[in-house]
Request: fold
Amino acid sequence: MRNFFPSIPGERLLLLTALLSLATLAHAQPTFPVNGIGGEKQNTYAFTNATIVANEKTTLTAATLVVKAGRIIAAGTNVVVPKEAMVVDCKGKFIYPSFIDLYSDYGMPIETRQPREYDYGQPAQLVSNRKGAFGWNQAIRSDVSAASIFVADDAKAKALRESGFGTVLTHQKDGIARGTGALVTLANEKENKVVIKEKASAHFSFSKGTSPQSYPTSLMGSIALLRQTFLDAAWYTSNASKEGLNLSLKAWNDNLSLPQVFEANDKWNDLRADKIGDEFGIQYIIKAGGNEYQRIAEMADSKASFILPLNFPMAMDVEDPNDARFISLADMKHWEMAPSNPAFFEKAKIPFCLTAADLKDTRQFLANLRKAIEYGLTEAKALEALTRTPATLIGVYNEVGSLEPGKLANFIITSGPVFMGNTIIYQNWIQGEKYTVNESGWSAAAGQYALTVSADQGTYAYTLDLKPDNSASIIGKDTLKATVNYNGKLVRISFPESKASQKMIRLSGVNNSGQWQGTGEDANGVKLLWTASFKNAAVVKEDSVKKTPALELGKITYPFNGYGWETMPKPQTILIRNATVWTNESEGKLDGTDVLVKNGKIAAIGKNLSEAGAIVVDGTGKHLTAGIIDEHSHIAAASINEGAQSVTSEVRIADNLYPDDINIYRQLSGGVTSSHILHGSANTIGGQTQLIKLRWGADAEGLKFANWDPFIKFALGENVKKSYAPQNNRFPDSRMGVEEVLNDAFTRARDYENAIKAASAQVKGKKGATAANPWSIVRRDLELDALVEIMNKKRFITCHSYVQSEITAAMRIGEKFGFTFNTFTHILEGYKVADKMKAHGSNASTFSDWWNYKMEVVDAIPYNATIMQRVGLNVAINSDDAEMARRLNQEAAKSIKYGGMSEEDALKMVTLNPAKMLHVADRVGSIKAGKDADLVLWSDDPLSIYARAEKTIVDGIVYFDRERDKELRSKIAAEKNRLIQKMLAEKKSGAPVQPARASMELMHTCSDHAHSHGLLVIDTDDLNGNN
Amino acid sequence: MTKRLYRIIFALLFSSAAMSQENVYPAKEYKGLLFIKNANVHVGNGQVLDNVTIQVNNGKIEKIGKDLPIPMDDVKVFDVKGKQVYPGLILSGSLLGLVEVNSVRSTIDHTEMGYYNPSIRSIVAYNTDSKVINTLRSNGILLANIVPQGGRISGSSSVVQLDAWNYEDAAYKMDNGIHVNMPDLLSRPNAFSAPGENPIDKSLEEIAKLKAFFREAQAYAVEPTHLSTNLKYEAVKGLFSKSQKLFVHCNIVKEMLVAVDFAKEFGMDVVIVGGSESYQVAQLLKASNIAVILDQMHSLPTLQDDDVDQPYKTAAALQKAGVLFAINDEDGQTRGRNLPFNAGTAAAYGLTKEQALQAITLNAATILGIGDRTGSIEPGKDANIIVSEGDILDMRSSIVTLAFIQGRMIDLTDKHKQLYERYKLKYGIK
Reply:
């Protein structure tokens, strides 16, 4: 039998070296030359008397595990130990399959180039500078194979092994398409032996990583790039001759059959990734961010499997109330609830596995996992999430993930149930080789020993009683307090010669196959020999997971902040009585009128209405109007500007709606019920827009305005010619070029449309692969698709514009290609060409009184809206600003002051007129039976500065109510205080805390602002240097 | 001249659409008597006087009362029956005349390089021919405090009246205050700070430096003669004698506490500019006699959990605690012309209309150090007066028809009205 414990310190180094070379020899590969003496290493082991947890469902007691040549050959209770096996007695110990992490970059080279944010001040890098026959965008790295750049790294492996991991799926975390992942073990062996599966997975993310190329600059750009690459790759299969060699697309296609893993890192991004997958028939395995519990129903609906990180936020130091003041309730709640994320997945029956990837210190993994268990995750599920689930997800359960004959000998030996607080992992065996984790308790398991000490004058027998807390006593005539120091290999014992004496007997020895033996000196320096044999184990007190007091957690709200709903509201029957009703219809303004709201619609308008069961709202002295519609907004989106190219019609705001934006609630408080979320103005042909209803609490899909004509944002002038960039190398640089960008784009779109028509004719009636599919011939181009839709009047333009020349030039382009510029937005010189706009058929959506903040608005005048309206245009007032959107009624009222517009006409500029220009006036914009119940009850004349929205109703649901708002504020205060006290208690208990950090918010603008939005707002334009 | 003739001349001036702003002349000094009768006077101090006559003599308000006798000869008389009369509005902090077009660098004169620039003076760069000025007058703003930006000590501001040939004509009070930007004491995530480096510590160092500067300047100020002249110390002498005020630009509680500390240590008159969190320490500010200029009523709440209307309600909180405060409009897109509507918003959220008016008239004047000369319609003060069709705080009726600066009736034409006329003509709109 082999001695597992090297015994003599002086020989340690030598032995270690010997073992290392042995290990190398043991796995010598046939093709590799040997420098030295060859020979295979003996490699059969039997682990006996163990509690074997073969998988999360099967636990065998007094069982034996036999492994040979790196694989399990038997695991069970009636196993015959082969003669050649080296036997390891595992009495009292537990054996588990070792853990699997699907989200690792173990052994991957770190890219030296730092990821770079888009920098407006720098010239753009418009084309790839990567060497080789790759695709056009450097963020598509589908050709990268983890197996070919993998370098086993024992220092990193060690940290993972100590947490119980044996196998990881590793890939290089760089780029939007990241190539393939390799399944590797954490053995300290040649890469050739460690890689179990060369291409086990394909990896993706939304982050372009170290790609220096400008495109994409935004989340929606990343999504568009993924979408286009799917199409390009499919097209490439039959059009390689047109494209030439494209290794990126080739690899993309090759990887399609692999399990697809998407790093999304956030609840909304998870759903965005899943949606891309749905579009192309792929079910991604989603790397989560830890906040998914906030939207667990949506996670379940995605049908995805998830990889969950365990990096729970630390409590903040909130002792200073002036610092704590800037921490949002949402951040505090997340601190409290994040450890329950895995439990939420378990309860929702969503398949998931766990990763150590996001931890700052890998060694925190088990501690955090235990926390997750405290917060409701079951131990069986935890084990499944670390073994069976990950192995199954990437199709390697035949190799790893349980203790069954035939599988890799990847297992851990522990002192007890693996997730218990005081359990020690002794050894982590990988591919049949032992890696020591912590053997100090391996055989010094507390208990009673027969201690025999012999000197020349005789032999003395004692009982050594070693307690689990390491206190010890020597029981002979007296019971003496002893000190025992044992590290699993060497042992030191000292005790007084008698109760009264200070003089000590000192023993030193080694563990020799479960028996201690060695030499010593008695109290007088006389030499001794001694042995200690294990008699019986100490009675171990049941010490499972710390019994903590029942968890007291806050409630999930939708959205996850102070003003969210605990349960989503439903439409109600509401009767508003005796209000002044601004119908926006031919009836005009009706005094003392009732409006009945039922099933989300306006059911009736009249005097003395009644409805059984209706909630009656007294409107006496109040004013009821249609909800405000903001034609130009940038709220509720994760990104706004894809500024890397001059034409980005492929990007879609809809892909990245952000339903948690507090500005949705704030706009509701100002009577806004619908907002048109526009792409920014960084480029001539921007992205596709999205009209939303402010259904506070809904998810991204729930926000969308249903059955709406799609729109797209265009922009002209200073922003798109990058007038403020010190070095512009992106065409165009002048208004002449801006016009030509439009001309060129639509020319290409027209040619493209013709090519599609020709291809369609060509495939008509054909059978087989090309059957009725022009896309096998023509490359489908999402950018041009959107432009073709415009020419076919299936998509409509809202165009950021200022000066008269550019407005006219744009209209002429539209006329040349047979379409109308539906809306000119901003349009501050619209008053100069209002007659031309009218002839063209445009609408105008403008600011009330902005001017002179840039050169192209030096002629902006507050009479603009009035003039355009009087020339006969349909005119709206928009916000382009989350603050001003709350006062759009007042912005409209400025036209009463500037030019003498009537109050009713002024109100229409923020209700009916934008509804018309957005093609939704059949449903919103006025108070008429049958229309959507999107209504605002005002305290005063809605055009007055003194008017406040008291109730804002969308689809018959009161989403904002001043009374409820007041209640919520007192709830927020109470809940915040509870969490502050809890954080203080956490600090007091000695747990680590992080400094108080203000909860910053990102905000998007149109690049047109000289406007500060407060202390905690980071303007994304500032980040991009766009101001 | 007869009253009638004056009205005709006035009407001609006003309808003359072909002018460009270059032809809008600063009004000449007016000697002698002038009357505004049948006036509903919003005094600016909270009072309203219905149907009175204001008598102005040599540019100063001489008398206000019912049935004041009006001499028949050679005086201007304005009958403002049915209209509302207010003191000229005061913009208490503005870049007016220091920048024409925000995005064009060559038109920007509001920020000097360097960190400690107390001797930098905004007045010398104030451009009386800025096209923005007349658009403010059109909305009733007759005085503005012109404030330099940037650095730790930005320089001195000056108050100007908005009808002048040049900055010396315009100056209403020169160098009324020194402007300091408080180091940031908000603990926010900062990707740029080195590991272990706490940005707050840096700010505290900056505060210590600032204090050291004022200690040196204070010592310099009491030194009878100087071997070498220090322009920076010279520039802040007035702070110690209280002929100037210290305007501290800051927002959060800790920063305001430091500002209070400045007032205590150096005995300066301290004004907090910004003050978005001032509602949290209103009592303390009152007790310490610190005034506040609320820079922007129309802004979003600071934290997502805050009352959605908090910025609109802050003024009422200060009023309740008795803090002297002004409402400002520092908006970069509209360039300050919405001052009355910022005040109107405060009135919608807790102030009375007269209190809101006071925050853009008398309070602003008091804080800027010109309260003895203007800010209210009271005898002895300059005749800085506007007449509006209706409630000046509400955009529906806030239409200024007459304005007087030091008794001079100013031309209310501006570039926007001119372009309006030009295009009304093009389209044949009446």
Notes: The radius of gyration of chain B is 23 Å.
